[in-house]
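Data card: per-record layout.
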Amino acid sequence: MNDETMPRRKLFLSVALLWPIGLWLMGGSFLVIAPRASAQSFEETQQDFLRGHYDKVIETARKKVEDGDYGGDWRVLLVKALLTVGRYHEAHTNAVAALHEYYSATLEKHLLARETSLYENDTAAANRQLLEMRLLVERRSGRFDPEDIVPLGRVLLLLGVEPKLVLENCFRRAETMSPPQREGFLASGQLALDKHDYALAADAFRAGLKQFPDDPDMETGLAQAFEPSDREEMSGAIQAALAVNPHHVPSLLLLTDHLIDAEEYDQAEKKISIVLNVNPHNPEALAYRAVLAHLRNDSASEQKFREQALQFWKSNPRVDYIIGLKLAQKYRFAEGAAAQKRALAFDPTYLPAQRELAEDLLRLGQTDEGWKLVQQVHATDDYDVTTYNLITLHDQMVKYQTLTNADFIVHMTPLEAKLYGDSVLDLLGRAKATLCRKYGVELTQPTTVDIFPEQKDFAVRTFGLPGNPGYLGVCFGSVITANSPASQEPNPANWQDVLWHEFCHVVTLNATQNKMPRWLSEGISVYEERQAKPTWGARMDLANRAMILDGKLTPLGELSSAFLAPKNGRELQFAYYESSLVVEFLAQQYGFDALKAILQELRDGKEINEAITAHTAALGDITKQFAKFARVKAENLAPGVDVETPPPHKSETETAAWEESHPKNYFVRMDKAHKLMEEKKWSEAKPLLEALTNEYLGEHQSENPLWLLAATERHLNETNAEYATLQKFAERESDFADLELRLIELSQDRQDWPNAIKYSQRLLAINPLISAPYEALAKAGAATGANDVAIDANRKLLLLNPPDAAQVHFQLAQLLHERGGSEPEARRHVLQALEEAPRFRDAQRLLLQIEAVKEGSSL
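The structure for this 859-residue chain is written out next.
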């Protein structure tokens, strides 16, 4: 049992009471009493318990207890088995009896008596047991049997002793005893899981499995450690546990959790049924069943299952914690926060609910209340990794600048806010005007947008933990978090595209009150990227074409699971693209109004497949129609061009034979072009690349033959041809910084100032944190008389600490002087130029001119 599920009383947490215990732990001295020998039959029965033969264990243990056999802790094993199958009253009766038997003062027996008292709805008795344990710890002054070391640690955690002290002096010590204690590894791993220290948890359970192979509890602990980072490893560990014990409740509950994430609700119900066959009253299984009822919009069943979950322990905070956690993971943050508040009404000290409520509030945009609660949790538990990360992030975010208007609250670092904060507000404003009108949505509160220059800060704000590097942005409904270009060097994505995508989530999540499957939410956002600009969003390319033609389309009913545990980045990208293609198909085949009607049905609580069929056709027909639509689109990507993928893993001879039999193959010819370029045979590469650009131009960035052709023309000194090629390429790209940089360079060489401005602005949409676009805008603005453009560019260039700051200050002063009306600012900048370069003659002359204007105005 997770100790954090137990209510704690302030009475037992005073510093004065804990101080001697803490000192003793830091000393770390134990008087170890030799373990009692246990009969083989007891060990065999323990193995039966691990393998799920609970009825057999109960029968055997009860008989041993009745026979007065004290060769093992039969009464303890009996209580654990009875708790597992939900026979709570019998468990309590036996737990109380255990306290009066031989060697009755063991802490484990007191812990079981406390736990079973809770399932008797007797909180007072549970608290009396905690007092008994505290007194027992003080009386024994460190004299405990080896088997009591782990229970001692659990007691000390209940009493509020520092978790790291308990970990090192109890749980770790149990791991290193001879022989090592199984419970030590389990307790170390569970404590790390409770504190979100997943790496430490994985280490503990791996070490435990080396000592105790095929242990289902260890395997499930390892699965939990992998849950946030590697769903494939998690699934493997769950299957390993269930192979040993098909009725292993923790594994089945974790699998249920995973299936709910994947929106495989029918399968989740089946796993819950298996758990309830073991224990008809399991509170976690019934809590998950309440979650599923909520997702079905069945409030009556939800209430019934919640009441059943609380039947035996009416103030169990974990029930509402699980309900709230899963609803929040479905982006139902308001409902999730309400559930956490119910949990805290049962037990105000219950840390998991406090943590989750804090994150829910932050995701709802209630940041003042959310950050305050984070600080309270951290003050109580400074080991918890999530709250520590959030506290550290908060210390950074208080330095951020806030940009606001009637519709948005944007938090950025001061530098980034000055460089492109106005552009962020402008882009978001255009997205709101376009998408809210299109979907008929009226937002009732401003949208908060947090933009982070460090990926780890984005991950902590978004997920509570660093990691998840594949995400550019996340939307929670009325809160958006995004990585800034600074976090994506050297190849940042188009930040305008990212924010358009995320704001589309704001619209659709509000349209459905967050009641939409992930695939539809992502599909609409990617679809709307393409609608905004053809160069934005995922599109058909050779990789997507191959996935479709190879039969890799995921059925509509399983699309959300494709986002959960993809085998690689390619599969995840295809999940985004396929989802957007489904939306495109529905909009084209059945009309955009049908898509809006589906969103309305979801808002009203209808299940997604029902909502689709209500406004389109039977799901089987839709699936067939979409597969045909996708296939036709894939086949039309490069008609008449041999784009068959060369077979992998072939010998050199086999590869050469395949290439010889496919002389017109796109990949073969691209490979040949690359080799010619590596050999600097530019004249031979050019006609090959020209032929390729006449056939297919759908690949991204440097994989596109247009980029290779432009490079070849550059080496042949055919700069006019290169310029034309790159301009053609720019019509197909939105986030290729090298392309924009080269176009800026070529347009400036030709004094093609309109294009210099155009490509500089395109580069700013990719990376507004480098000097090149501002330098080009400053030159182009000055050359064309667009003084305001040049002034703004020079101001921003100065923020980036240019190497020739004196020249930039001078240019800015000159532009301000020529514009008029800004003489104080012009004077300040010319003085700064002279401060950098005192002999700067042009700056000296400009200062005299400015002073003359000042004197003339004073006369």
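Known properties of this structure: The longest helix spans residues 414-439. Strands lie at 31-32, 143-144, 401-404, 408-412, 447-452, 473-475, 479-483.

See the next section for split statistics.
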